[in-house]
Each structure stands twice: as C-alpha cells, then as structure tokens.
C-alpha cells in the first residue's frame, strides 16, 4: 500500500488548496439539503398518531445527536493519527471540531428536553441515555478547556488527543444505554437489522436532514481548519502569497 | 509501518482496551443503580428497598385505570408481562398516558404493596406512524378480535 496520499494529507498547503476547491460545492449541497429537509419535515411529513406535531423536533434532535457522536469519534481518530503519525493537521482538525461537537451535543440535549416536557412530563430525568449524553458534553468541554489551559501547542495537542481517545469509551455507552438498562428514553427506531419502526414519509426527510447536518458540519469544520492553518503557518511563504493576493 | 509508530499505535489501543474494561466493570457493578426504574417482577420478588422512594415502570394494563369521581385520584396496574403492581396517584397524568402505554412512576410502596406515586412519567416507544395508519391498524385488530381469531398482544 502506498502511503503517499496519506502523507500528502498532512501538508497544510495541499489541504488549503483542496479544501478551497471543495468549499463552494459543499456549501451549495448542504444548504440545499437543509432547505429541502426542513420544509419536508416540518410541513409535509404526516403527524404522529400519539405525539401530534411535537414529534417534528426529531428533525433537529436526531441529526444533532448523530453528529455529536460522529464528531467525537472523529476527534478520537484525529487524536490517534496525531499521536501515532505526528500529523499536525490531525491536531488542527481535533481543535476545530471540538466546539462544533459541543454545540451539537448541546442542541441535542436542549431539543430533547423541550420534547420531553410534553411527551414524558419532565424536562430532565437522570436516565442512562440522558446522563451519558451530558457526559459527552462535559468531555467536549474538557477537551476545549484543556486546549486553552496549556499554552505550548505540542503539549496541548498530546493532552487533548489522549483525552479524546480515552473519552471514546462513552460512545458505545450512549448508543447501547437504552438496551442495557431500563431508561425513560425509548430504544432506537432505526437499527441495522430490522426495518425502521417509522414509515418512509417520516424517515426520508429525516435522512435528508442527517445528510444536511453532516454537510454543514464538514463545511464548518473546513472553514475553521483553513483559518487555523493560516494562523499556524503564517511564516510560510505560500501563506504570505495568499494573503498578499487577497489584500 | 515504522516500528516506532507501530509501538505507539499498539500502546494507544491497549489504553483504549484498558479504559474500556475498567468502565465496563464499573458499569456492571452499578447495574441496578443505573436502571431508571424497577420492573413489577423485581418489586413482587422483594428486590426493592422498603422505606425508600423508588421508581416503578411497566405497561399500563388495559382496563385497569380507575378515576375517583370527586378528585384527581387515579389508580392503575402496571405489568412487565409476568407480574402486576398497582399504582395510586393523585394529579394530572401526562398527555401520552394511556392504557397499553409504558410509564414510570416515582413513589413509595405502602404496606399492601401499592406504589403511592407522586410523579408519573409517560414512556414513549420507538414506534412512529401517521394517525391514519394507527387507525387502520386498530380497525384491523378490532375486526380480527370480532372474527374470533386470537388477537396479538404485547
């Protein structure tokens, strides 16, 4: 297997050029998908037989929760790549993705809480799913705080990478909490093995929203990473050239 | 792969496995503390601390809900399929509360084994469907029951 592609990924200049070409397409696709998903989900999808219209919060809650967990797994992978291959871009990705993941977790918790009041009768209950999701938020906060507390960039990169890797054990706990324990939160509607406990006219807009959220996440991450790369490599000649050209 | 990198990768994987094992042991030791509620079987079997506030959860038995005429007092039975526990509650039940629906009640067991609840939460299941579909399914079920075929239940 050739490792050239992998090592090229580590070059900030190469990353800056490729991501610049990718950005407009990504922006167009995700904004389009988001518009379709929101209109479809909020206006055209049928209401639920028990919850009525309040179930529509699923179109924000579920994509946010999926992204919160995917983003954390990405942090852990970036942490491993950063520690093993000492790739600087992996650290850039880790630092830039953590705040987005924290916001996604926050949105998932808040929308869940808003939905919980009319459906369950309470905003918050210390059940396994809700608590493990709160721990995920604290893990994100921990990573962000650790980064800010250590002024040396290499030390901070190592420390946050270790924290991201160790915290990844929480992800399967979130996923399987509803199966392992008695919880107030319902078990998964979508599984790999069975057909979804939801009709297509409800889950198709949800799928669109999930893809749109992934697109927006990638877009946001690339924008943040490009800025961070410029900030870190400001002494390099290619950065000077870009900045001179744009000013 | 470079031997140094391989060594680092193996070290990281060992750390993940170690932390995972430690967390798994801790969680399995805390099994009952993490469960949000006791099932009726556990309550009937006496696994429940007598003088503490507990949560009981299960399906509301069809036809078991009785309301007092002059107050908000209600009582109903919950089941997990094998055992039944009666719950008494005074207050407004959540919108999703209905017979056949899962609920979680917080309260104390009295001498007769009735849970005197001061909070009742409705548990939502993972099923979503439009009202027309739900109605069609109910009609089909009713028709089947009328025809004398054994109706499927939980």
What's the total count of β strands of chain B? 6
Helical content of chain B, roughly?
A: 25-40%
Q: Main sheet of chain A?
A: none
H/E order of the elements of chain A?
Answer: HHHHHHHHH
Radius of gyration of chain A: 20 Å
The low-confidence runs of chain B, each spanning 5 or more residues with pLDDT under 50, are none
Assembly of the depicted chains: heterodimer
**Portion in strands of chain A:** under 5%
Proportion in β-strands of chain B: 25-35%
C-alpha geometry of chain B: extended
How many structural units, i.e. domains of chain A? 1
Number of helical stretches of at least 4 residues of chain B: 4
Largest sheet of chain B: 5 strands, mixed, barrel
Structural classification of chain A: mainly alpha
Mean pLDDT across every amino acid position of chain B: 84
Name the structural class of chain B: alpha+beta
Q: List the chains of the largest interface with their residue counts.
A: A-B, 41 and 38 residues
Q: What is the H-and-E element order of chain B?
A: HHHEEEEEEH
Low-confidence stretches of chain A: none
The mean pLDDT of chain A is 91
Cα(first) to Cα(last) distance of chain B is: 55 Å
Function (chain B): Heme chaperone required for the biogenesis of c-type cytochromes. Transiently binds heme delivered by CcmC and transfers the heme to apo-cytochromes in a process facilitated by CcmF and CcmH.
Protein name (chain B): Cytochrome c-type biogenesis protein CcmE
Organism (chain B): Pseudomonas neustonica
Pfam family, one (chain B): CcmE
